[in-house]
Amino acid sequence: MVLLDVVTGLRASELFGLKWTDIDFIRNEIRVTRSIVLQVVGPCKTEASQKPVPLDSLLARTLRTWRAHTKYKAETDWVFASPYSQGRKPYWYQSLMRNRIREVARRAGITKQMGWHTFRHTCATLLRASGADIKVAQELLRHASCRVTLDTYTQAVTEHKRAAQGRVASLVRGIGPECVRRTHRSTTPTKPRTRFSPTLRR
Known about the structure:
- There is one protein chain.
- By secondary structure, the chain is mostly helical.
- It folds into two domains: 2-153, Intergrase catalytic core (hpI Integrase, Chain A, Orthogonal Bundle), CATH 1.10.443.10; 158-187, no CATH class.
- The protein is 50% helix and 6% strand.
- It is built from ten helices and five strands.
- The strands form two sheets. The protein has a three-stranded antiparallel beta sheet, with no helix packed on it.
- α6 (134-141) crosses α7 (146-153).
- The longest helix is centred in the C-terminal third of the chain and has 16 residues, at 158-173.
- The radius of gyration is 28 Å and the shape is globular.
- The N and C termini lie far apart (93 Å).
- The model is unreliable at 180-189 and 196-202 (pLDDT under 50).
């Protein structure tokens, strides 16, 4: 479920609101038709949220494997049905994050605070790092406008920040042939030419 969330950028309420009938393995897409908050089923956040989400072939294989292993695989079953409710409800995602995912992250050496929205932010950041057009990122994240995608979700990757900072530092230090030549011409005073008298020329 973490893999699915990171790659698709689904909101947690949408992720756990999925039923098998929402997964189209023929068209390789996910239909987001409902959300679930505090185990209460409701509509999606916005009209834009209801747009189909592409399903990568890796994700499709992963979901097929999960369906083969779970006890709850009927079309009307929740994709992430909780065995504690005999499949009548999906997992309580707040509890799952607190008791399972954060614990696994801690054992892996990840100390930063995380929540389900962290995976959505990660998806947006990786989209930018991969060179995705901002309009494509907006459609994949199903935001109402590009401004939301730019202002709220997209962060510069650390490596890109470091590279940009390095370019600025190089300019300040005057590194680079074009910069060096330009600086040399503009700052080095021109030596005055010595004019010799006709007698000296002889």
